[in-house]
UniProtKB/TrEMBL annotation:
Native source organism of the sequence: Aetokthonos hydrillicola Thurmond2011
Protein name: Probable membrane transporter protein
Family: Belongs to the 4-toluene sulfonate uptake permease (TSUP) (TC 2.A.102) family.
Keywords: Cell membrane, Membrane, Transmembrane, Transmembrane helix
GO cellular component, one term: plasma membrane
Bilayer topology term: Multi-pass membrane protein
Lineage summary: Bacteria, Bacillati, Cyanobacteriota, Cyanophyceae, Nostocales
Transmembrane segments: 6-29, 41-60, 72-94, 106-131, 151-183, 195-213
Amino acid sequence: MDFLLLPVLSFLIGIIVGLTGIGGASLITPMLIFIFQVPPAVAVSSDIVAATMMKIVGGVKHWQQETLDCQVVKWLALGSVPGSLAGVGILYLIRQMGIANLDEILLRLLGFMILVVVFLGLGQLVIKGFFPDFELPQPPKFDLNTSVGRIQAMSVGAILGSMVGMTSVSSGSLFAMVLIAFFQLDSRKLVGTDLAQAAILLSFTSLGHILLGTVNWGLVIPIWIGTIPGVMLGAKLCQLMPQRVLKFAIYTLLIGVSCKLVY
C-alpha cells in the first residue's frame, strides 16, 4: 500500500467534508476498498475510528462556542450509542457463526446506505433548485420536554446508530436530516449539534470495532494526518465555493460508487 497516497487522498476528502458537510465515511470507506484493496470489514472499522477524532475536534469547538443544542445531543445519544453497539454486535455474531460472508454483507449494506444518503441529498438539491417556492409537508417536531418526544428521539437515534455501527455511513448525513426535520434547529446550531452527537456516537462505536479486532491502525493514522487539516482548510474555503454545484458533482460520484458496492 502507498502510505503517501492515503494521507493525500484523505486530505482531499477532508476538504470536501469541510466544504459541503457530506460525511467522510461515504468517501473514505469506498476509497479504502477500491483503491487500496482493504477488506470491507477492516475498511469500515478503520474509517469509524479515524472519523472519531475529526468529529470530536469539531464537537468540542462548537461546545466551547455554545453553537449546539445539548438537550438534543443528549437524547439522540441515549438512543444512538446502544444502537451502534448493537450494530457492531450483529457484525460480531455474523462473523462468529460463519453463516454468511461478512465482507459481502458489508459491501451491500455500504452501497444501500450511501444510496439512501445520496438520493435524500439530491432530492433536497432538486427541490431547492427547480422549485424554490415549493413547501414540503412538515413532519411533527419532537418535544423533548415530554416523555413521548424523548422516546421518539431515542428511537430515531437507535435506528440510525445501528446503521452507523454496521456500515460507518450516515453518522453525519442522515442525522443532519433528522435534526432539520424533527427538531427544526436553526442553521447556527445545526452543524454543531450534528458534530457533537456524531462525536459521542462514534466514540462508543469505535470501542466496539476495536474490540471486534478489525481496526488497522496503519490506515487510521494516515487518514488522521490527511483529514484533520483538510477539514480545517475546507471550512475556511466554504464561503468561496458554489455549494449546490459542488454537492451535485459529489452526489453523482457517490451514485456510481454505491452501485459498484451493491452489484
